[in-house]
Amino acid sequence: MISFRAKYISSVNIQKINPKNDKKEPCEASFVELDPLNLYDTDAIASASIRWGKPEYSELIANNMEMRKKYPEKYRFDTNKFYAITTQKKYFNVPEPSEILAVCKAEEDTDGVITVKALQVKPDKYIYKEPFYYNHVGMGILQSLKKLFSGKDIKLFSTPNAKPFYLANGFMENKECETEMYYEA
């Protein structure tokens, strides 16, 4: 078992689907902040990233957390924060990496705008964890960020394939830079 020091922020509503009968029901997960200086937090994200098989942004987040842990003096002024959605509801000091459904790296700019620098949901059409599939995880992490940074604008850079998702979740496209998306509080 890996243990980490994630800080619980809030519950988040996602959806679970029973694959035996396709019954959909609401499900509560946890939105947590990870400590990049904690060995177990960085290991939990690295392990989850490997388990996902397509680690794109989760691997970037894990590597960034590892660099902050390895060189704390160099990154002492770094204001990036790391977040995750997990199906765990307690015992955050003993998580299972398979419980991690999404990860995110964000930073508050000097002008008060929140910039999401990396975000990845476990890459499956439906996220499977015995005995359920999970859905609406991406929407859940965006809602959690909006709630956490209430009253602040949020911006991010999207891949072309993800733009419809962000548009459906209240983000708008910057007309001057088609990959930049923003949410006005």
Count the beta strands. 10
Structural class based on helices, strands and sheet pairing: alpha+beta
Task: Please summarize the sheet with the most strands.
Answer: 10 strands, mixed
Compute the CA-based radius of gyration.
16 Å
**What is the H-and-E element order?**
EEHHEEEEEHEHEE
Q: Round the mean pLDDT to the nearest integer and report it.
A: 87
General shape: globular
**Stretches where pLDDT falls below 50 for ≥5 residues?**
none
Strand order of the largest sheet: 6-7-1-2-3-4-5-8-10-9
DSSP helix count?
A: 4
Range of strand content: 25-35%
> Approximately how much helix is present in the residues?
25-40%
Task: Please give the oligomerization state of what you see.
Answer: single chain
N/C terminus separation = 40 Å
Provide structural commentary:
It is a single chain. With 185 residues, the chain is α+β, with helices and mostly antiparallel strands. It has four helices and ten strands. It has a ten-stranded mixed sheet with strand order 6-7-1-2-3-4-5-8-10-9. Helix 1 packs antiparallel against helix 2. 33% of the residues are buried. The mean pLDDT is 87.
Give a short summary of the structure.
The chain contains 4 helices and 10 strands; from the N terminus they run ββααβββββαβαββ.
Write the layout of secondary structure elements.
Blueprint: E1 7-18, E2 23-34, H1 39-52, H2 56-70, E3 81-86, E4 100-108, E5 114-121, E6 127-129, E7 132-135, H3 137-148, E8 154-157, H4 163-168, E9 172-173, E10 180-183
Parallel strand pairs: 5-8
Antiparallel strand pairs: 1-2, 1-7, 2-3, 3-4, 4-5, 6-7, 8-10, 9-10
Helix pairs in contact: 1-2
